[in-house]
Each structure stands twice: as structure tokens, then as C-alpha cells.
Hints:
Spore Coat Polysaccharide Biosynthesis Protein SpsA, Chain A, 2 domains, 10 helices
Amino acid sequence: MIxxxxxxxxxxxxxxxxxxxxxxxxxxxxWEVVVADNGSTDATASVVRGWADRxxxxxLVDASEVRGPGAARNAGVRAAKGDLLVFCDADDxxxxxxxxxxxxxxxxxxxxxxxxxxxxxxxxxxxxxxTHSIPSALSQFGFLPAVISANLALRRSVFEEVxxxxxxxxxxxxxxxxWRLQLRGYTCVVRTDAVVxxxxxxxxxxxxxxxxAYGRCGPALYRRYRAEGLxxxxxxxxxxxxxLALNAPRLVRTEFRTEWASIAGWRTGRLLESWRQxxxxx
Length: 282
């Protein structure tokens, strides 16, 4: 049995596009979709109930007891029936063949990540030749590679061996899970035919805010893994801040703002969380 876990909080209006894409997946093994609602205040729960009434593939789980993406995914796993766990996000769209690609990879690997289409949902032209984005977490910290939970599959036995996602991390919980598993001797692989169309935040401040949240995971992960070899790269941090300052005048060009906002947000998040954690990881 395969369980697809979709954590969600206030997932409208995008959730139904993802549920439709999941419904279209073809899989030779029995499978289910578990939508773990982390305390939505919009009509998410009623929408999912409607899908469940029409198609027994879908189930709604109340995952509101503990707030956060890791807690929602853990609650979904506890309610799931499958021995193989596959994760995606509520505001993205899985592409044809996505589920079968993960299931095939899990016959040989314990942890599998996919790749991303970053243009289809964001009004951008597809690259030529067509290539998909590899998750930046694979090399972001110069430590162990990692796969991210928006496109992740693993065996339940492996997931439970390390206690699932860390519920005290609001971002980076997937990186933490990947690292804990590798320190146990497991390896991560990336399946290039497991494709998810990723939805970006719109506008300068939307992008900046999302990447600030992502950046906050750095100091927390550093505190957990510095004894295992995770190191600060102060030279790269200084170069990045210098690049941001030197290129700030280019923000008058609309097409450059998203790139600048994502990098600035990532580094700002690190600084803010460094202050909160009393751990300097810029």
C-alpha cells in the first residue's frame, strides 16, 4: 500500500488543482491520498470531504493538534495505511508519472527526492532544452545532501526509525529528516522523472517573506549538526551580502527583483534566527 501525504493549512484556492492532479496519477499498486489539515480556517476541510465523498482514494485527517508542517505530516503518516510514504504540498501540482516514479525508486532506495518545474505555475516560459530544477537543499549547506518534502518518498520503516519529522522546526524539517537518515547510513537519491510543478510566491515581498522563512532553518540546523560536521561559511556570507548591496540599484529592473528578493530573504532569515537562537550562522 502507498500513502500520499498532503499537509495543508488554508489551502484554497490551489488545493483542488493538486487533488485533481493526484486523482489522475496511475499506479499499479493500491494507494491512497491522506490530506492532513493543520487547522485551516477557510473551507479546506469541507472541500476535501467533498472529494472524499466522490472518490474513496481521498481521506481527510485532522492534524490541528500541533501547528506546523512537520506535525501535519507526522499526523498524516499516523493515519496512513501505506508502507511506502510519498509527500507533496497542497499548492503545487504533481506531474504525470510522478507517483510511479517514486514507487519504482523505492524498490532500490530508502529515501527519494524528485525535481521541479518552476515555470508552469508561474507564468514563465519553459527552458530550452527542457530541464527541471534540482532542489537547492542538495548542496545549500555544504554538508550532507537533502531532499525536500514537496517531492519526497521513503519507506515507513525508515521514517519511523528516526521518529519522523521534527515538529519544533517550522522550516528545514525535511533537511533535518534527510540528514538524520543519512547519519544512520541511508542514502538519498533524486529521481528526475518524479516531477512537481512548484508554485512561487508572487511579488517582491511575497518572495522575500517566503525565503526569509526558509533562511531561518540555517541556525537551528547548525546548532543540531555542528558536532557532526556542519560548518559556517563566513566568506560566502560576506560575499553574498556584498553582492546584494552592489546589485541593489538593479532592482529598478522588474525581472531581477525575484532573484534579489530570494537571496536577500534567505540571508535575512539566517540573521534573524541567529539572534533568536544565540548562534551565529549568517
